[in-house]
Design a protein that fits this description.
Helix content is 41%, strand content 20%. It has 280 residues and is α/β, with parallel strands linked by helices. The termini are close together.
């Protein structure tokens, strides 16, 4: 795979720094826990004990540890060495009989794992793939690592988020309110060389084809607010739990799922491979 080494270096630097506050800003928050439980529901349904599952953009390892506790064998990869250090620390604290294997590996270099496949499935949670420039190439490389009919679940940013629009309009920031709809690609936290892409579900699906076909998708964070409303959520934790229950019921319904902060897509590895993926 061809990739921009400067972009990868920028991404590594950014996520190394972000690792230090990831728990406080998202994973350990009321909203973060509610969002993650919604994704875990589908991960637990898709993957079985003793299956070998590959996690892309594993961050601090909380999803990997959750699945490992269920008996799933996990290989978690992330571009940031500090994220991997924290993931290994978390797994050690849990004293799991079969802890995840964590590696420092950018998603753009997935093909380095080819000799370790085939895997029974893969996933990437909470927008890690929004920072990858070429999803088509990721699909091709991942297709070489997974068994036919293996599941691939990805959670990415949504495009139309009423919560976000109303919040920023109420705070006099109309430009920010419509950012996701107005700009497909933006810089990440002002970091040079690091961009965030926000493809629609239809665009994601096209980039995954023909190696993967979409089975189903749902919204994550429809009535549960975005993470920057955590101060409000802390005041009303019972309300957040109830809203999470509403999300669980309406998450797959057309129209509602289009209004989510994140979308969770479940793909199946087909028997087809793009010809560009076979002659590297």
């Amino acid at each position: 795979m061809s990739f921009n080494s400067n972009s990868l270096q920028s991404a590594e630097t950014y996520w190394n720094a972000a690792a230090e506050t990831y728990e406080q800003k998202f994973t350990g928050t009321t909203i973060g826990r509610a969002r993650r439980r919604a994704v875990w529901h589908d991960l637990e349904r898709a993957f079985r004990p003793n299956e070998r599952i590959l996690e892309l953009n594993c961050g601090t390892g909380i999803d990997a540890v959750f699945l490992a506790a269920k008996g799933v064998q996990i290989l978690g990869c992330d571009i940031a060495p500090r994220m991997i250090e924290l993931a290994r620390d978390l797994a050690a604290q849990e004293e799991l009989p079969n802890p995840p294997d964590f590696r420092v590996l950018p998603t753009e270099n997935l093909i380095a794992l080819e000799q370790e496949g085939p895997f029974d499935g893969a996933f990437s949670n909470f927008s890690g793939l929004n920072c990858v420039e070429d999803l088509s190439q990721v699909a091709q490389d991942l297709g070489r690592l997974l068994k036919p009919r293996a599941r691939f679940l990805i959670c990415m940013m949504g495009r139309f988020v009423p919560w976000e629009i109303l919040w920023f309009l109420a705070h006099g920031r109309p430009q920010r309110a419509f950012l996701r709809l107005r700009e497909y690609r933006t810089s990440c936290a002002g970091v040079s060389g690091l961009t965030v892409q926000r493809p629609a579900v239809s665009q994601i699906t096209r980039q995954m084809e023909p190696t993967f076909r979409l089975l189903r998708w749902k919204g994550i964070g429809i009535t549960v607010p975005p993470s920057y409303l955590e101060n409000l959520a802390c005041r009303f934790p019972t309300l957040i739990d109830r809203l999470a229950g509403v999300d669980q019921h309406i998450g797959e319904l057309p129209l509602f799922r289009d209004m989510a902060d994140c979308v969770l897509l479940e793909f199946e590895r087909t028997s087809e491979m793009n010809s560009n993926a076979t002659g590297r």
